[in-house]
Amino acid sequence: MRTLCILGVGALALGLVVLGPPAARAADPRFTPDATEACLADAVGRAAKTDCVGQSANACMTHPDGANTAVIGFCLGQEAQLWDTRLNDAFAELLPLERALDDSRPEGWSLPSRAKALRHMQRDWIRFRDTACQYSRLRYDSGSLANSAQLACLMRLTARQALDLEAVLEEVK
Asked: How many CB atoms lie within 10 A of CB 49?
């Protein structure tokens, strides 16, 4: 029960930081995915794509108030959302392809379902990501960098998973 309360409070705090206080939202319309998308368009190979993670958040933080933890949280949260959208899009496109591959197996094959394995992997990955990023937050106790650490972790791990699923999607197509 205590763990659920801690996770619930953490999720609530994360939601507040992603949205940011009203002043940060009003003064902060400058986040765009352009830097990350431009980097990805030029990137060749996985390592180069991984180097693109955080580009838009960093560009967002060049604002004069960029050193403010609310702005940092806003920028990191926006890029985390960008990667979460890419992750969900890749998963949604990959799942029916895996189902089709499952259905195309010769009769009598007893291999586990690729689609079920994908869903199970993704659920386990979400638990891992949430736990790892909660740990990143807790390393700063209740300090001002706690939210930023958690959001940076969410951005980084979500981006890696999105890139992984996008690579699998390219292989399966």
From this structure: 20
DSSP result, 8-50: HHHHHHHHHHHH--HHHHHT-TT--SHHHHHHHHH--SHHHHH
Q: Report how far Cα 77 is from the mean position of its chain's Cα atoms.
A: 9
Q: What is the dihedral of CA 122, 129, 75, 22, to 10 degrees?
A: 100
C-alpha atoms less than 13 angstroms from C-alpha of 1 in its C-beta half-sphere: 0
Residue extents of the structural domains in the chain: 16-104+112-172
Percent of the chain with pLDDT over 90: 69
User: Structure pTM?
Assistant: 0.80
Counts of helices then strands in the chain (DSSP H, E): 8, 0
For the stretch 97-113, what's the b/e string if a residue is b when 16 or more beta carbons lie within 10 angstroms of its beta carbon? bbeeebeeeeeeeeeee
CA distance 37 to 161: 17
Task: Specify the 3-state DSSP secondary structure of 172.
Answer: helix
Distance (Å, rounded) from C-alpha 150 to C-alpha 129? 10
